[in-house]
Amino acid sequence: MVGSRHSMNRRLAGILVPVFSIRGQNDLGIGDVSSLHEFVNFASEVGFGFVQLLPINETGPDNSPYNAISSVAIEPMTLDCTPGSLKDLSKIDSDEVLASYDIDALNAGSVKYDQVRKLKSELLSKAYAGFLANVYGRVDLRANEFEGFCKEQAEWLNDYCVFRLLMERESGSQVWQQWKEEYQDKDKAIELLTEEAQKSSDDIDRELRYFAYVQWVAFEQWKEVADYAASKDVCLMGDIPFGVSLYSVDVWANLEIFDLDWYGGAPPEQLFKDDEFVQKWGQNWGIPLYRWDVLKERQYDWWRQRIAKTTEIFGMFRVDHALGFYRIYSFPWNPVRNDEFLPLSHDEAAERCEGHLPGFRPRNDDSDESRAANCDEGEEYLRMIQQSAGISEVIAEDLGTVPEYVRPSLEKLGIAGMKVPQWEYSDGHVTSGLKYPGTSFATYATHDHQPIPAQWKEMHRQLCDSSHHSPEWWEARNFLESLCRFAGIDMENDHPPEFSDYVWEQLMRELCLSNSDRVAFMINDLLGDDERINVPGVMDGTNWSYRLGCSAKELTVGKDYWALREQLKKVLNESGRSRRVGGYS
């Protein structure tokens, strides 16, 4: 399965759905590999060629897939923790744990992360105890497989296990810069643990191996669901963020490859109307910059490892914020200080940062020489990613403030960039999808946006309620008119129509008829659900908790979704994108 590009059919359509959002038959409050297994059946039944996921790496307390504590380790909450799937978990132990939870209440509504994390941790701990009692240290095939996994993955796994153990000792905090001083330095921490192990080796070894055990199970389960998807002729599509969290094992264990004086983000953006800081200074994501000179000396070993582990599971993957490889907007202060800098003038801010201000690094695009240098370096890094990916397909998320050289550069490399129809203009007109390059990935919305049906309805209300020719009126008018022109939707007396089944089918059909090799729809687009997956900048705990209102099985065979399945089959077949074309299903 790994790396399958489905070469027998160039034109593929996919569905974007976070794993945590899927509902399965054996849910424990969150979507997992079992739920994904069932969702693959829906994708295959309709004719979709891939299922696009968000990053699956282990997250921190904010639950953001884009703020993981490891660039390799898999999030334990994505695991199927039912007896049978967890081979070392007995039904008796499972029932004992579940008796303390109201599973129906846990499954109702959105993801309740604190409860789910605690529940799955208890089940995994029970399974680990069963593994130690019945398998580990014996003449057993699985014991040998586990030892083989630990040896083969030692390069990243050893650091990860130590980091997770220290997190446990620091009340679950991943903020290693606030740990005990002796824990903040990897070498000192390992030396300290080694001394402890000489006194009580069994305890330390048992704790460390637990985290290795969970990752062993995680990679087994994820490879199994990827193989199942391939058997249904569906490819799983992953996601690799450009940056990593400052508070990750990657930074703690590899300080030499990160620049902790600068933090990556995005330039000022007026569209963030409710965020004064973003309008004035930009988005400060808090991701440390890379020391590319050091990485180059090491043949980009950290990046190659990251890509290799991704392609063990995913046959295609998106690189989030690929623009960062060319240059990245950076801040000379940690985002925890954003409130301090919000009211300051540029001169006042520079005074507090040794004369530095936010801007693009390693250099601005303010001269031909700078643009050429940024382009050359970006291509070098992306070629490295392509080489590391092997036959897996690389897609670049190239949205935002895009330098003019980036898209020609991606085309030169043969990497698909993104096409969002309502943002694509040429010669002052909305670009026809027929003019999109084949090597591109077209979609109406990403996980950071409202679903398109909700956007259309909101903009139509805004158009009707705003004063004629006011800024709000023009914003709504331009949005709706651009989509009408792209999808060939008739305007009624020069007025965009209200959202309807006709409007949505036209939007789907025209995206599928575009020349892009790959097109994708968000699952909440297809279901007409107004709920969002993520609202950038919102930190109230509601993000990343969206769950579907129906199960994957209902989507696949339920009578209430028969019309949706038939509509999707029709559009995919007519546009030549169905995986069912030629007898594949």
Architecture overview:
By secondary structure, the protein is of the alpha/beta class. 45% of the residues lie in helices and 11% in strands. It has an eight-stranded parallel β-sheet. A hairpin with a 2-residue loop joins strand 11 (425-426) and strand 12. The protein starts with 11 loop residues before the first strand and ends in an 11-residue tail after the last helix. The relative contact order is 0.13.
Could you tell me the strand content as a percent range?
Answer: 5-15%
Mean pLDDT: 94
Spatially, the strands of the biggest sheet line up as 9-6-3-2-1-14-13-10
The total of beta strands comes to 14
Helix content: 40-55%
Low-confidence stretches: 1-8, 581-585
Oligomerization category of the chains in this entry? single chain
Question: Structural class of the helix and strand makeup?
Answer: alpha/beta
For the biggest sheet, the summary is: 8 strands, parallel
**Tally of contiguous helical segments:** 22
- Spatial shape: globular
Terminal-residue CA separation:
15 Å
Integer-rounded radius of gyration: 25 Å
